[in-house]
Amino acid sequence: MKKVNYFQPYCLKTLMTPSFEDQILALREVINRYNLHYYTHDEPIITDAEYDRKIQQLRQLESENPEFKTPDSPTQKVGGAVLSAFSKVNHEIPMLSLGNVYSAEELEAFVERLNNRLDTRDDL
Known about the structure:
Elements: H1 9-16, H2 20-40, H3 48-64, H4 104-118
Helix pairs in contact: 2-3
C-alpha cells in the first residue's frame, strides 16, 4: 500500500487556496456591502479607486470563469438603491464619464471617444 503524505506543501496550499467560485462569491458579497454603504446610506467605506479594483478583479474572474457569471452579480448592475433624500435631475448636456482609466493609452482612447462624440479634432 502506498503511503500518502497529507502534509506536503502543495496539499496544504491547495486546501488553503479558495476556488474561483469562492473568490467570486466573496468579492460579490464585499462589493454588495460597499454598494449598500455608498448608494443607500450615502456613507462610502472605501475609496473609488479601491472599489474600481474590486470590480475589475470580479470582472476578470467572471470573464475567465463564465460558468460562475450570474445576472445578480454587481458587474451586471449599475448603481443601487438611492436615498429618497436625493432628487432626480435631468441634465441638458450629457454627463460624459471618464470611466476607469489606469494608463496613458486608456486616457488617449477616452479623449478620442470624446472627440468623436463631440465631432471635433481639437485637443481637449
